[in-house]
Predict the structure.
Amino acid sequence: MPMGEFDLIARHFTRAPRRRDRIALGVGDDCALLAPAPGQQLAVSTDLLLEGRHFLSTVPPERLGHKALAVNLSDLAACGAEPLAFTLALALPRADEAFLAPFARGLFELADAHGIELVGGDTTAGPLAICITVLGQVPAGQALLRSGARAGDQLWVSGTLGDARLALEAFRGRVALDGDGFEVARRAMERPEPRVALGLALRGLATSAIDLSDGLAGDLGHMLAASGTGARIDVDALPRSALLVRQPREVQLECLLAGGDDYELLFTAPAALHDAVRAAGVRAGVALACVGTVEADPGLRLVDAGGQALAARFAGFDHFSNPA
Ligand code: ADP
Ligand code: MG
């Protein structure tokens, strides 16, 4: 390696902690020392990203740095936790400045936007892999869980869904997008914005929440299973971009329901709190769409705006893997 492991860490991943109130000791010793505020629980989440499986080799390193942290912050957002710090375990084929400098730039730009510090990690030679662990805090007992959805609650989604999946299909050559459209979709896939402010604004309002990483249908399934409930979704109410609206309906549905990499929040709240939820969205600066209702009957029922059940049961509906 042209640059040793310790030089690499010192050069790219070591900065003096800016939040001395929360970070008593950062990078450089055997452990970092954190001081969560009294009365708070620590919220901890880890995501491992492998080239070829979780990101394409075509992703610019700056966006990869952003995304690796963003997907972790998205988990804190889903719990209504306030981010404090993170660790970074990195396997790299070689100490490549042309990769490391922009990767660290994208990473720290997002860290700075959320006022959090990199407090430690591990670095080794190997096939490119990025593992981040985020630490956050949430007042004891106030974390948003997957298990709290109750029959009668409204189902909400933030932002728009499906553009990241659309980009993936464009990379795979299965949909054609014009140059501008491709860039919009690609940005959604490579540079998701974690909904941290929304997660915080939903404390005390949402009965349950999950972040959308594997597609709405699957992630909603996790929430419903954890809550012991079912749900009805109006697929025509699912929020989508101007780009996705121009696609054929079956492509829209596939991207909306089985998308993946959306990193929006899906949450439930009592119907009586509808206006308060709207206000929370405004406070957080994120568009919210009310897309359905939690029901006592287990299972997911997909209907259109007219209330008609969707012809194809979604479980068997995979436009891209079974092209007609
Ligand atoms: P150890 O031998 O105790 O695992 P290392 O030599 O691996 O320690 O790391 C030295 C210091 O550098 C530790 O404080 C560790 O947390 C930090 N560190 C290592 N790799 C990274 C990285 N990629 N990002 C941030 N800190 C790192
Ligand atoms: Mg180590």
In short: Residues 122 surround magnesium ion (ligand 2) (CB under 6 Å). The two ends are 50 Å apart (CA to CA).
